[in-house]
Specification:
234 residues; alpha/beta; Rossmann fold; seven-stranded mixed β-sheet; AB_hydrolase_sf; hydrolase; Alpha/beta hydrolase; AB_hydrolase_1
Length: 234
């Protein structure tokens, strides 16, 4: 599993988990911003970015368990787990399976919208969201997607669609920040608000002038929201 550590104060530790088809590289700017507050670990999930594919595809629940086991020794005081898109499903599973490792949770563009839980609808919404995006977002996205084999992508998409985030939200004990880009077509506002409402200690905020790929376009507003939220928990 490929990991990039961005040095900062020893606590808090931020763990950044990307979405389907992406890799830790999409978090470069966010990691640099958050490093002013704490230590940052950005990971490539198995089969994405620079991490090799394992022998078999793993469910999101199994992926979360593996990440928790791999990072437990690095997180004696827990961490702020930040997930984007499919990454929100994985960090939510970590929060449920290993609450001892989670001091706070950040769900950016949580998936999968229960009203559009099919592969064709998800792909269509992703393409709609990218329409009119900046060249930087498009180039970074294309570069990351070329690192993932089509078969692996399809397998993980199947697991992503089979996992129902809303079913585990009530079991998340950690304070949680739910973020949505105001122009996100993949994660509609009613769906994202419903996710926040199901989590016992959650706050919902929207990122102005951003779509689904909010962390790629400009990290500063996202980092400011995360930092303010973490500071409020201290």
């Amino acid at each position: 599993m490929a990991v990039t550590e961005t040095a900062g104060p020893p606590e808090p530790v931020f763990v950044l988990i990307h979405g389907i088809g992406m890799g830790r590289a999409v978090f470069t700017e966010l990691a640099n911003e958050l490093a002013a507050t704490g230590r940052v670990l950005a990971l490539d999930l198995p089969g994405f970015g620079d991490s090799p594919e394992p022998g078999t595809a793993m469910s999101l629940e199994a992926t979360a368990a593996g990440l928790a086991d791999a990072l437990a020794s690095e997180l004696p005081h827990g961490a702020v787990w930040v997930g984007h898109s499919m990454g929100t499903q994985i960090v939510a599973e970590v929060a449920v399976q290993r609450p001892d490792l989670v001091r706070a949770l950040v769900l950016i563009a949580p998936t999968v919208d229960a009203a559009a839980r099919t592969a064709p609808r998800q792909i269509r919404h992703m393409l709609q969201d990218l329409y009119g995006e900046s060249p930087r977002v498009l180039l970074v996205g294309m570069w990351q997607y070329t690192k993932t084999s089509p078969l692996w992508f399809v397998r993980k998409l199947q697991f992503m669609l089979a996992h129902h985030l809303e079913s585990i939200c009530p079991r998340i004990a950690a304070p949680t920040l739910v973020l949505r880009g105001a122009h996100d077509r993949v994660c509609p506002e009613p769906w994202t608000r419903s996710v926040a409402a199901l989590i016992p200690h959650a706050t919902f905020e929207q990122i102005p002038d951003r779509g689904h790929e909010a962390v790629i376009k400009s990290a500063e507003p996202v980092a400011d929201m995360i930092t303010a939220f973490v500071d409020a928990q201290s």
